[in-house]
Amino acid sequence: MTNSPKPRARGADKRRRLMAAAAQVLHRQGVERTTIADIAQAADVPVGNVYYYFKTKDELVQAALAEHAGGLAEFTGELDKLPDPLDRLKAMVGAWVGQRETAARYGCPTGSLAVELDKRDDGGLDLEVGKVIRLLLDWVERQFRELGLPDPDDLAITFVGAYQGMSLLANALRDPEIMTREGNRLTRWLDDLPSAREDGG
User: Fold this and answer.
1) pLDDT tens-digit profile of 89-114?
2) Which structural domains are found in the chain, ordered by start?
3) 3-class SS string, the chain
4) I need a surface site. Which of 21, 96, 122, 175 has the fewest CB within 10 A?
């Protein structure tokens, strides 16, 4: 006789599946075109069960943002295992370029949500998506600070802004190679930055 999963464990699994599905479906379809039924289907959860975990679509959007934040924290945690901050930044560029087909088709997950949610009148969710982008900016700024470079906050905005720009253009023109070309340009920019370590800083 096999033991069936405990109800709490099954519930946690359903919630996790719904969060992951919300992040995926909202990225592909956008907030306005996505229904709760779309997310339920992607998560393989009956539509009626969704309301046990998330009462509204906005709660599912918040769940998607939490999923993006968690994924970013996990990814940057892996990059932090690299000993050199410059290598961490280059690895991030490499990961972005590695997602070029997805970016060309759907754009940046958080960037696309930021643009869409900013146009809504209710407020709140646009601020939530800004927090996810801030997590990325803060991590990038720490890398430049560790490199000993001046104005690490400005460098972080340039770096993340370059990613958002190439994602938007790749998506608008449906051309993934824009990500490749601009990713190479961003890597060269990183290599050309003066290093405080070389200057004895």
Assistant:
1) 999 999 999 999 999 999 999 999 99
2) 7-192 (1.10.357.10)
3) CCCCCCHHHHHHHHHHHHHHHHHHHHHHHCCCCCCHHHHHHHHCCCHHHHHHHCCCHHHHHHHHHHHHHHHHHHHHHHHCCCCCHHHHHHHHHHHHHHCHHHHHHHCCHHHHHHHHHHCCCCCCHHHHHHHHHHHHHHHHHHHHHHCCCCCHHHHHHHHHHHHHHHHHHHHHHCCCHHHHHHHHHHHHHHHHCCCCCCCCC
4) 122
